[in-house]
């Protein structure tokens, strides 16, 4: 699908969506944001606004974009592991080592945050503890009442528990 983009002067730019989007989606899946992926196409690349307009109007493209976003989160998670396993450069000590570690931590935290926003169920910090079973309070009360009645009572309407109680 080709789309013409009008501009104030000159001929309108015509972009081949079928040729552009596979490249853009590949860049996104490898960890780039949409704006960065478009810039990687070169100086004649379409604008960010063009890309967002295409995404709003094409449902098949929306689904492919969502899959690329999920792949991007996975790529960022892989980057986190790579960064965490990176050994310190030789010869760094004192303030230089501290600066390098702080910079590495910043890169890791940025990737953690983005991955948690892109795929919150996989990389999010919150844990879903939803209980799917329903509990009937009346049923629980009836069962408790049956247990009390099965114990029996003494003459003063006190439950007999089998334990010795000082009177």
Word description of this protein:
The chain has a single domain, classed as Arc Repressor Mutant, subunit A (Orthogonal Bundle). The protein has 7 helices and 2 strands, in the order ββααααααα. Strand 1 and strand 2 form a beta hairpin. Helix 1 runs parallel beside helix 4, helix 3 packs across helix 4 and helix 4 runs antiparallel to helix 5.
Descriptors:
167 residues, mainly alpha, Arc Repressor Mutant, subunit A, two-stranded antiparallel ribbon, 59% helix, 5% strand, flat
Count of distinct structural domains? 1
Order of helices and strands: EEHHHHHHH
The number of E-state strands comes to 2
What is the percentage of strand-forming residues? under 5%
Q: Briefly, what CATH class?
A: Mainly Alpha
Helix content range: 55-70%
């Amino acid at each position: 699908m080709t789309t013409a983009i009008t501009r104030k002067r000159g001929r309108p730019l015509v972009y081949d969506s079928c040729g552009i989007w596979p490249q853009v989606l590949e860049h996104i899946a490898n960890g780039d944001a949409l704006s960065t992926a478009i810039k990687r196409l070169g100086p004649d690349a379409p604008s960010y606004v063009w890309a967002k307009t295409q995404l709003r109007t094409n449902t098949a493209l929306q689904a492919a974009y969502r899959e690329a976003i999920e792949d991007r989160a996975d790529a960022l998670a892989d980057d986190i592991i790579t960064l965490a396993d990176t050994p310190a450069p030789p010869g760094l000590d004192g303030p230089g080592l501290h600066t390098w570690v702080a910079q590495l931590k910043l890169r890791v935290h940025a990737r953690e945050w983005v991955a948690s926003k892109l795929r919150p169920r996989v990389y999010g910090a919150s844990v879903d503890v939803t209980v799917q079973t329903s509990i009937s309070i009346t049923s629980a009360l009836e069962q408790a009442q049956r247990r009390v009645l099965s114990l029996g009572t003494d003459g003063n309407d006190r439950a007999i528990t089998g334990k010795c109680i000082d009177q």
